[in-house]
Design brief:
alpha/beta, 15 strands, 7-stranded parallel β-sheet, elongated, 11 helices, 6-stranded parallel β-sheet, about 15% strand
Length: about 350
């Protein structure tokens, strides 16, 4: 039995990975008069980092790509559990955060007559968002191209990607054990890390200038030990972190970001004026991350490099042409500022006496 809450409850369904969770977290923090609750998968993923700030309730959600013949039955059971949870919480509305984990809670909201809102930050909406869009009272989009693949019925608005308010910090390089005067390459593989990107970076750094720059490498938990061992054999100063929940600290010391092109990362680099080289996740069938980065690339704020092309020659060129060239970094930073959309909350009116309005 879930204990009732005192204020109106809005349930954020989905999460697990940071790309889905953190935009929802930004919205939740902008709703001080409400009681946000996060409905997340049992493995939780990055949702473990919000325990204590907001209430977290676990709900198993089936994946259609695993035992597809059992998916309808498993989904029906998950929806029934979600209905029970929403009733016990006395939920006012549900916000779907995208991904398979958002589907049971979103369908349950629809079946109970609760308003459903969706947050879709990717330039190419995922399957869950495309399926749920027909039931939504409103959809907040991170990029205009996403509108082309969604039904015209729901109220879709391009709000930009909701960003956390704690991204801007005064962190110094010394806090990571780095030299204050050296240009710093920040390597990000996403909240779960990226083994392919980690390996490519370590392999490529052998060809780069010794002592001219340093690296802050967020490796992910799985690869942290091997990445630390890899840097010991390289003559490149580096700090390796498995996961950094307050990612603004890493951006604060970065002169160039080398990263996957998740929608939140692209928006964060633009908002914080960080020049970037994006290495899209190569296995999305719709090349989602390429589309996420394309506006920044067109504006001159970023470059795209395919993972297969990130060899020592390519990485050496990135270091010399961008990281070690202050004028080039400045031009890219100014271009990033020109495209930044730092709207931290959805522009929507929800039922009842509470409103969520955009803030630049």
């Amino acid at each position: 039995m879930i204990a009732p809450l005192k204020r109106k409850v809005v349930v954020f369904a989905g999460g697990g990975t940071g790309g889905h969770l953190f935009p929802g977290l930004a919205v939740a923090r902008a709703l001080p008069s409400l009681e946000p609750v996060f409905l997340v998968p049992p493995d939780r993923g990055d949702a473990v980092h919000i325990d204590g700030e907001f209430r977290v309730v676990e709900l198993a959600a089936p994946r259609v790509d695993r035992a597809p013949w059992l998916f309808p039955v498993r989904l029906a059971r998950a929806v029934q559990r979600a209905r029970r949870i929403l009733r016990e919480l006395d939920a006012t509305a549900v916000v779907g955060l995208g991904g398979y984990a958002s589907v049971p809670g979103a369908i349950a909201a629809r079946s109970l007559g609760l308003p459903l809102y969706l947050i879709e930050c990717n330039a190419v909406p995922g399957r869950a968002t495309r399926f749920l869009a027909r039931f939504a009272a409103g959809i907040g989009l991170g990029a205009a191209p996403a509108q082309a693949t969604l039904p015209r019925g729901p109220l879709c608005r391009v709000t930009g990607t909701p960003l956390r308010g704690d991204l801007r910090t005064d962190t110094t390089k010394e806090e990571f054990g780095l030299e204050p005067a050296l240009p710093t390459l920040l390597v990000l593989g996403g909240s779960q890390g990226a083994s392919g990107l980690n390996a490519r970076v370590l392999g490529g750094l052998e060809a780069c200038a010794r002592g001219a720059f340093q690296v802050l490498h967020c490796s992910g938990n799985r690869d942290a030990a091997s990445v630390r061992a890899g840097y010991k054999s390289l003559d490149v100063p580096a700090a390796v972190i498995d996961f950094l929940p307050d990612i603004g600290r890493a951006y604060a010391v970065a002169d160039l970001v080398l990263s996957r092109a998740g929608a939140s990362t692209v928006a964060e680099c633009a908002a914080l004026r960080r020049p970037a080289v994006f290495v899209p996740y190569p296995w999305h069938r719709d090349r989602q991350q390429v589309h996420n980065a394309w506006e920044a690339v067109r504006a001159g704020a970023a470059r795209i490099v395919e993972e297969a092309d990130l060899d020592p020659t390519m990485l050496k060129g990135i270091v010399h042409e961008i990281l070690l060239d202050p004028e080039q970094r400045h031009r890219m930073a100014e271009a990033a500022h020109g495209i930044a959309r730092n709207r931290v909350i959805l522009r929507q009116r929800f039922p009842g006496d509470w409103t969520v309005s955009a803030r630049d």
